[in-house]
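Researcher: Here's the sequence for the chain we discussed earlier.
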Amino acid sequence: MRYKKKKIKIKSVISVLALCVLFMFVLFVSSCKDKVIPPVEVGYEYFPVDVGHWIEYEVDSIVYDDFTGTIDTSHYFIKEVFESEFIDNQNRPTVRMERYFKAADTLNYTLKDIWYVNLTTSTAEKVEENYRITKLAFPINSLQSWDKNAFNVNDEIIYEYDDIHEAKTINTLSFDSTITAQHYDQVTLISEDYEFEIYAKNVGMIKKKFVHLEKVWDNPSQAWIIESGVILEYKIIDYKK
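Model: Thanks. This is the structure I predict for it:
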């Protein structure tokens, strides 16, 4: 008889524990339903591809020619227009981008070339001069990195993000949220190699800089001077969403 009472008591304890576990599970499920899970911000807004959208840039270029010893500087304007959309041979929505050029702000724009743009779930891509460039990788975060030349024959150039969701002002135009996609190779006494592009939310690229310089030691001036290379910079001056 004592054994039976003990067995009944153990069953009662197990039943109570089971009820407690069930009660805790119900509370957990209920609390999960009450919580609002914020959506993950992927970052597509930094690369808008709406037809009719356009951005206008002023561009500065400096070319150092080691063969002739000359320095060629130029200042001009580029306007990029998202002109139309079609389906490419990979069955992807593709935007035709018309790029216009003028040598001075008092002149009219003339069509310079045609590029193409793709926004996928994981990348933002541009076909520039028949080379497909990966401009951005999604989701945008400080751990993200990618090879901008993954879809062309050029050497690997690894990009990563910096200054994520920061406000910036370019040419008196203010932007509440921007990101910087950059490749930082090296800056030494004998060379400089780096490039970056800044994108604003719902606008697109607002600034770009490309630097590739080789330097030599100059005895008369007792300093390192630029022997060859290129500095190219785009800065936004106007846009239409």
